[in-house]
Specification:
It is built from 2 helices and 4 strands.
Length: 80
């Protein structure tokens, strides 16, 4: 299955929260490799969230309902 970016969080903390919201609904989710740097601490830069292509629309809907003031960007994008 192909992984796609479905949202971009403003920073790593928000990305981790969004990822947990999506996972709580049973959808596989991960952060874009390279957007976080553990050895430097928490990233203050935007972090992309990924899911399987078939789940991208549902994942974006979940964030639209549960992300509060921060809005995920629109639609899935291919990362290939």
């Amino acid at each position: 299955m192909k992984w796609v970016v479905f949202a971009t969080a403003p920073d790593q903390i928000m990305a981790e929260i969004w990822m947990q919201l999506v996972r709580a609904e049973g959808i596989r989710c991960r952060l874009q490799p390279g957007d976080t740097t553990n050895f430097l601490g928490i990233s203050a830069y935007p972090v992309r969230l990924m899911t399987l292509e078939r789940d991208a629309e549902k994942a974006a809907e979940i964030l639209g309902q549960g992300a509060g003031e921060e809005e995920p960007d629109n639609g899935p994008r291919n990362t290939s």
